[in-house]
Specification:
alpha/beta, about 50% helix, binds zinc ion, TIM Barrel, binds adenine
Length: about 325
């Protein structure tokens, strides 16, 4: 079998995808009209021309503008449903979806509206397509820990709809330690813990995510390769890293995919996975990430099996279901 076909066809889990980053321009325009709003772009083509980013912050500004069209529970449902259809087509059997409530409560949409809409899509996709989907609430690290605690408070009535909490948004200048207490609280509630670290930020942020926040996975983590002691720690403890190659390319973490360190991470024995991050903005869903990265780095079928296996191993599905997927 040809490698490109294997990559498309192999069962996989996706562990790093922000649902707000899956909002395609076409749906953004449709929701704008449905909600009687307007966008500062003439049409889909003009909007897509704005999708050129110098760094993470430049992207976050555009991404935030896109979230302004999301107003109703049905909007969140429709956005999640569209992503889940795409994921199923890419042979994603299980997905752990990042979302945040702070972006939306910040412009007058309640946490209940967000969570209920997303959760209903997760229930429906399990019933209709057999894809399992769970939700991870991300705190926004450019805001205060107190605001993160408020977001967790607002999510309390929905704990049964969440599998964990994460940490996203502007990394530089916002080290993980800032969120030590709210992560401890989430842990005491039985939630799984993950955090973005080492996307643009230094290895020290990855150490802090592990030691101060006690996260079980690192999102991105590509900067870990600059610190041999950290690589040894991540390998020893089999800490999964949810790598997003096209995101790293579009946000200029690496100048080209050929210079990406995913191959080196696998070589070093790290539990790396491939994910799409914000597929509507970065030029591809998970299979596109696999296809382009494998072509650029000359990765092999053996690497493909390892990455697929890692994705289920790193997931928060229970142990018996994990064995069924392996
Ligand atoms: N929110 C959405 N995508 C993100 C990323 N790549 N890094 C940090 N926060 C994000
Ligand atoms: Zn991300």
């Amino acid at each position: 079998e040809r490698l490109p076909d294997l990559l498309k066809r192999m069962p996989k889990a996706e562990l790093h995808m922000h649902i707000e980053g899956s909002l395609e321009p076409e749906l953004m325009f449709a929701l704008t009209a449905r909600n009687g709003l307007s966008l500062p772009y003439a049409d889909v083509a003009a909007l897509k021309r704005a999708y050129v980013f110098g760094n993470l912050q430049a992207f976050l500004d555009v991404y935030h503008a896109g979230t302004l069209v999301l107003r109703t529970e049905q909007d969140f449902y429709d956005m999640a449903w569209a992503y889940l259809q795409r994921a199923a087509a890419d042979r994603v059997l299980h997905t752990e979806i990042f979302f945040d409530t702070q972006t939306h409560t910040g412009h007058g949409v309640s946490a209940d509206t967000v969570i209920n809409g997303l959760h209903r899509a997760c229930v429906d996709v399990q019933q209709q397509l057999g894809v399992s989907a769970s939700l991870i609430l991300c705190f926004l690290r450019h805001l205060s820990e107190e605001e993160a605690s408020e977001a967790l408070e607002q999510a309390m009535p929905h704990l049964d709809k969440l599998v964990g909490v994460g940490l996203a948004s502007s990394e530089l200048g916002h080290p993980p330690e800032k969120f030590t207490r709210v992560f401890a609280k989430a842990r005491s509630l039985g939630l799984h813990l993950v955090a973005h670290a080492g996307e643009e930020g230094p290895p020290a942020y990855i150490w802090a995510a592990l030691d101060a926040l006690k996260v079980e996975r690192i999102d991105h983590g590509v900067q870990a390769m600059k610190d041999p002691a950290l690589v040894a720690r991540l390998a020893r403890d089999k800490v999964p890293l949810t790598v997003c190659p096209l995101s790293n390319l579009k946000l200029r973490v690496f100048p080209s995919l050929a210079q990406h360190n995913l191959g080196a991470m696998l070589q070093a024995g790290l539990v790396a996975t491939v994910n799409s991050d914000d597929p509507a903005y970065f030029g591809g869903y998970i299979n596109e990430n696999f296809a382009q990265t494998f072509a650029a780095l000359g990765l092999t079928a053996q690497n493909a099996f390892q990455l697929a296996s890692n994705s289920f191993e790193a997931s928060f599905i229970d142990a018996s279901a994990k064995r069924a997927y392996q």
